Amino acid sequence: MLKRISEKTFLLFAFVFVAQFVFPVSSSASSREFGDNGYVTAANWFTPKKSSDSGEGASINITFPKEGDVLPAGKKVLVKYDVNPGSKGDHFHYFLDGTQIASWRGRSGTLDYGVLPPGKHTITFKIATMAHSLIGVEKSVTFTVK
Q1: Pick from 18, 21, 36, 128: most CB atoms within 10 A?
Q2: Secondary structure letter of residue 3 according to DSSP
Q3: Average confidence score pLDDT of the chain
């Protein structure tokens, strides 16, 4: 005779079964991304982690604006940058005054932050892995719009 299982148990089983195909474990996967048992877990997958191991060659250079610059009010702030994600990074996340704006894979170029209100502002770039885990390499520049 077959034993009935609850709907919750069935859904959990179905999720774990499907997850092994949706999130396959590769030999290059870290235990942070896939857990020590080789399975994706919510805690490992969705919790950003900062690592002190930044990978070789990771660097960020914000060439404009420079620290302490005063920019004219009413004009777009165009941020020029060069990013090398190194061996562990994949892309970078960029922020304005502590709020993440987006992520980007460009290695160098210009990002349009639009017209900012007068006052002090801080832009920050943070290099992240393909799974959006921060690798610990970041650069901030504070400037004033007047």
Answers
A1: 128
A2: P
A3: 77
Distance CA 33, CA 30 (A): 5
- How far is it, in rounded angstroms, from Cα 141 to Cα 146? 16
Half-sphere exposure of 49 (CA within 13 A, CB side): 17
Does residue 1 form part of some domain? Answer: no
The answer to the question of residue 102 being in a domain is yes
Distance, CA of 83 to CA of 63 (rounded, Å):
11
Q: Is the pLDDT of residue 75 over 80?
A: yes
Q: Which domain holds residue 27?
A: 7-46
Can you give the pLDDT at residue 37? Answer: 42
Shared-domain flag, residues 128 and 107: yes
> In which region does residue 136 sit, left (phi positive, over 0), alpha (psi from -120 to 50) or beta (all else)?
left
